[in-house]
Each structure stands twice: as structure tokens, then as C-alpha cells.
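User: quick one, fold this
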Amino acid sequence: MLIKTDKKEFTIDDLAGLGVNSIAYIRKKVVDNRKLWFVHAAEGTQLACTDDEKKAISLVIDNELIPVSVH
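Assistant:
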């Protein structure tokens, strides 16, 4: 399904309506010269941090969420 919108900001209710309660995103950041992967709920709450990308994905899947990578 493709949804087009001109809306630039979404509320938590907007996101919930799109089904994002089941999505977590993974973002890589370099902190103190170390690659770390941060897991966030779709609305932005940080859920976890690890130095292993596969572990970050596993954490998301083990909690019955859908992993999405953010570049």
C-alpha cells in the first residue's frame, strides 16, 4: 500500500494508525570511535544499544517487532 501525504509531522496517534506499534528502527552511530547500534521504538523512544548489528536485529525480532534500518 502506498500512502501519499503532504503532512511533514506525524503525531503518535498518526503513527499508531499506520501500524507502527509493531515497528522498531535500528540506527548505527559512532560514539567514542566505536560503532554502536541503537534500537528505537517507532515514535523515537530508545529501547536498547549494542555493539553488534545482528544482536540489535535479534533484540527487535525477539520482542515481536519488525526491524527497520535507518541510514
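User: anything notable?
Assistant: Residues 53-62 form the longest helix (10 residues).
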